[in-house]
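Attaching the record inline, Q. Sequence:
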Amino acid sequence: MSTPDLVSEAITVVVNGQPHTTTARTLHDWVDAQGVQPVALATAVNGTFVPRDQRAQCLLQAGDLIVTFQPIQGG
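Structure, as predicted:
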């Protein structure tokens, strides 16, 4: 009997208030799958801001709440 491939199993997360099905397991992979430049998108998961350099360590689970927004530039 083989073990199911958990990496390809789809989960549902909520993105900006809308359900979204994905096979991404990290926030980095999810952002890559959106087809946008990573620097053009700021992210938070379950109410916590996730810097770009930490997205690969941010594991996604079913039901997670992802919020995306444009980063504020200035100085």
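The first strand starts at residue 11 and ends at 15. The mean pLDDT is 89.

More tomorrow.
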